[in-house]
């Protein structure tokens, strides 16, 4: 059969008939050249050329479209399958879909963002499936509501949009039962009564020094870091007294926690562990560094190749790499660094 190959720059077509070992090179620039070409090949090949309308092949072939590397998965994708975030990082449709699904069950990822800049909905919407678009729009109302009300019926527990509230009662759109928006129990008349289970839990929280967020009323516990708390709802407050951050005279960190964090940093750096002769001095230097940088904004990072290092935010082990903050030495995976912190 005919084997044809086109070189765009030279306008050559190579014609090879079944019984020809070497192709005949013919310049196809005008009709006379076409007639000569057809005269020099057998009838079957000539008919094949005419049927394929090869006259269009004299037009240079289009240049191949360069692909774009996704910042999240590092794979290459066609430009139409990638969006550029406000921070200039590129995200493919699959990684965006993964992030938007994750943020609906993990509020630390909401709103979907990169480098602390939210993705404009109009920018990413068309790359998400219709099912995910509908689910996210509905979930966004819930996640953007600070004082949320959920159906008091344990087997239902559906979120009740604030626009559905009638006075202090919130009718559930799923089971039609009503919930009090103040005490979050079954709707009632008069003053809200005491909730023994809630009071017992809050008593335990007070005993352990766990404060409640003034914005969403969540109870929080500090494991590591300074006393500056940033809640999932965005509220910032003091861990010791629950007042709005920087409006109280409380200490900004607990010295024991700070020393634990400093020791962890020294150990992460591979300085020989507790047995090293200068370990105490290194911990002291690291502690002083943390005192000066305890409110780090995590602006500059260095990538650390890893066989198995742990992200200090999501606590997951990373097989390829982690990023380490140049200022406070926090170690975080790519997702936590760009989409969570």
Topology:
Blueprint: E1 3-7, E2 12-16, E3 24-27, H1 31-39, H2 43-52, E4 68-69, E5 76-77, E6 82-84, E7 90-92, H3 93-103, E8 113-114, E9 117-118, H4 121-124, H5 130-143, E10 169-171, E11 178-180, H6 196-208, E12 228-230, E13 236-238, H7 255-268, H8 279-292, E14 301-305, E15 309-310, E16 317-318, E17 321-325, E18 331-332, H9 334-340
Antiparallel strand pairs: 1-2, 2-3, 4-5, 6-7, 8-9, 10-11, 12-13, 14-17, 15-16, 17-18
Report the total helices: 9
Class inferred from helices and paired strands: alpha+beta
Q: Give the DSSP E fraction (strand runs of 2 or more residues).
A: 15-25%
- Quick one: how many beta strands? 18
Give the CA-based shape. flat
How widely separated are the two ends? Answer: 62 Å
Average pLDDT score: 81
For the record, what is the CATH homologous superfamily label of the largest domain?
Zinc/RING finger domain, C3HC4 (zinc finger)
What is the CATH topology assignment of the largest domain?
Answer: Herpes Virus-1
Strand numbers in spatial order across the main sheet: 1-2-3
* Radius of gyration, CA atoms, in whole angstroms: 32 Å
CATH class of the largest domain: Alpha Beta
Largest sheet: 3 strands, antiparallel
Helix/strand order: EEEHHEEEEHEEHHEEHEEHHEEEEEH
Q: How many domains, in number, for the residues?
A: 6
Low-pLDDT parts are 1-29
| Helical proportion, percent range | 25-40%
CATH architectural category of the largest domain: 2-Layer Sandwich
InterPro entries: E3_UB_ligase_RBR (IPR031127), IBR_dom (IPR002867), TRIAD_supradom (IPR044066), Znf_RING_CS (IPR017907)
Organism: Friedmanniomyces simplex
GO biological process, one term: protein ubiquitination
Keywords: Metal-binding, Repeat, Transferase, Ubl conjugation pathway, Zinc, Zinc-finger
């Amino acid at each position: 059969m005919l084997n044809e190959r086109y070189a765009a720059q030279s306008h050559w077509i190579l014609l090879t008939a079944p019984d020809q070992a070497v192709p005949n090179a013919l310049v196809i620039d005008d009709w006379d050249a076409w007639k000569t070409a057809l005269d020099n090949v057998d009838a079957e090949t000539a008919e094949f050329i005419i049927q394929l309308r090869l006259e269009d092949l004299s037009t240079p072939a289009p240049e191949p479209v360069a692909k774009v590397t996704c910042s999240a998965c590092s794979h290459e994708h066609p430009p139409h399958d990638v969006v550029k975030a406000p921070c200039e990082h590129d995200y493919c449709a699959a990684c965006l879909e993964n992030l938007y699904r994750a943020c609906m069950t993990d509020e630390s990822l909401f709103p979907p963002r990169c480098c602390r800049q939210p993705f404009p909905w109009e920018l990413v919407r068309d790359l998400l499936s219709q099912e995910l678009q509908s689910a996210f729009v509905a979930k966004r109302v819930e996640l953007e509501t600070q004082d949320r009300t959920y159906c008091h019926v344990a087997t239902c527990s559906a979120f009740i949009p604030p626009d559905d509230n009638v006075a202090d009662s919130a009718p559930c759109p799923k089971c039609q039962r009503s919930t009090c928006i103040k005490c979050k129990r079954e709707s009632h008349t008069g003053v809200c009564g005491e909730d023994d289970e809630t009071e017992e839990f809050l008593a335990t929280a007070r005993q352990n020094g766990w404060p409640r967020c003034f914005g969403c009323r969540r109870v929080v516990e500090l494991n590591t870091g300074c006393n500056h708390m940033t809640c999932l709802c965005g509220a910032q407050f003091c861990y010791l007294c629950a007042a709005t951050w920087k409006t109280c005279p409380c200490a900004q960190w607990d010295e024991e926690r700070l020393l634990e964090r400093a020791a962890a940093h020294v150990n992460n750096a591979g300085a020989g562990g507790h047995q090293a002769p200068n370990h105490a001095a290194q911990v002291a230097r690291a502690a002083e560094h943390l005192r000066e940088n305890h409110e780090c904004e995590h602006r500059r990072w260095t990538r650390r190749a890893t066989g198995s290092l742990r992200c200090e935010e999501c606590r997951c082990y990373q097989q390829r790499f982690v990023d380490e903050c140049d200022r406070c030495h926090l170690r975080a995976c790519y997702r936590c660094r760009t989409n969570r912190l």
